[in-house]
Amino acid sequence: MELDKIKAVDTLSLVDKVEHELMQYFKENNYKPGDPIAKELDLCDALGVSRTVVREALLRLRTLGFIDSKKHKGMTFKEPDIINNFERIMDPTLLGQKTLKSLFELRLILEMGMADFLFEYKTQEDLDELEEIVRLEEETSYDKTAFELNKEIAFHGKLYKISKNTTLQRFHGLLLPVFEYLYQQEEFTKNSTYEYTAGQFVSHRMLLNNLKVGTPETFRGAMRRHLEPHFDRAFFKKKRT
Amino acid sequence: MELDKIKAVDTLSLVDKVEHELMQYFKENNYKPGDPIAKELDLCDALGVSRTVVREALLRLRTLGFIDSKKHKGMTFKEPDIINNFERIMDPTLLGQKTLKSLFELRLILEMGMADFLFEYKTQEDLDELEEIVRLEEETSYDKTAFELNKEIAFHGKLYKISKNTTLQRFHGLLLPVFEYLYQQEEFTKNSTYEYTAGQFVSHRMLLNNLKVGTPETFRGAMRRHLEPHFDRAFFKKKRT
């Protein structure tokens, strides 16, 4: 028996197959949001499987966001919300340390990478709003290098908004609980201060000024410096006291 | 009647409530991957709802990746794979134009933002591999500014790998079909060349040299220049001929 010619046995469950078949059908027939989907019983007939199997496959597609179903109105096709699925599982208490670390790093990458979008889309209104955030922060801060989560969120959250990228904004929104959790978990409290290698600390005020009169290049440099404690943390170069 | 004191009616379905209740239970009891989950019938009793409702809620959690269930072995809890959910819905033919644009932008942001990780984790082996990718590319390219998707993927895909961030790598993997689709859809073919504003085009060869002897700062500058056609496209500044 030549085993290189033997065909792998199909191990997909019936539900997997029906899920796959339905997705193929939607794609090939160019389904658009709002298009009605055939009734369960008709699908059973067409697919030649039991109602239980069809029902379970439809439930999966509903959970993933491809199907909308309202009582007495039948099912319709919809464009899945790419962030919504993420949102439902993004619970820091249920994610492992490795995943949490990779999400933390992702935040650093996003904030370093978004500079061009900030300079492209910033408006006077945005700058005024950041000005107000920084002003409030300065009024209530004694130690400007101390880390305070709520101030971080106000300032950096506004930057995500300026990027005009809704996927990015919502992604940031659902990463927030992850950051809060990480900060609570470790030594990132407002009582810990970070020792900068050399030279000046870059504050939110300085980032704002850079956004006003700088370029994406100068802003990236300033942001890198601002995020230095977080980068050192990601790379296990701890300098916290 | 004082309407500000009236309580909003609970409009969640029974299945929603059971899903929520189960998630709360897992969190409060600090469930870890592999922990067994009670049987359907026991859950029905404890929650006071029908088997159909429990079954549907469990199916949802299974689809989201919180529950593993093998035949004759019962259900166990698992850490959801944050990318797997994304993967299942990331089909460019089923996503709207706005979502596709935001994903395209996200790629630019990630590649601009990952420089520090590349310099932190690069090894001689990585550089050798990139060297080989660039060598092959140069051997088969006539016009170095022409865009060829497969060469892009080889080079940039390797950069994602060097970042050592598995979430980022897998995210890039599932964005690939989106990029392919966008390039096919629009004028980004290998026959179209991009007119650079002024000065030198930054090739993969130059990015590689930068990664060898430069810094994250110089690399970001080079990458920005390399990605210029894509940024111009994102900002609707078309300079293609």
UniProtKB/TrEMBL annotation, chains A, B:
InterPro entries: GntR_C (IPR011711), TF_FadR/GntR_C (IPR008920), Tscrpt_reg_HTH_GntR (IPR000524), WH-like_DNA-bd_sf (IPR036388), WH_DNA-bd_sf (IPR036390). It comes from the Bacteria. SUPFAM superfamilies: GntR ligand-binding domain-like (SSF48008), Winged helix' DNA-binding domain (SSF46785). Residues 12-80 form the HTH gntR-type domain. Keywords: DNA-binding, Transcription, Transcription regulation. GO terms for molecular function: DNA binding; DNA-binding transcription factor activity. Pfam families: FCD (PF07729), GntR (PF00392). This is GntR family transcriptional regulator. It comes from Portibacter lacus.
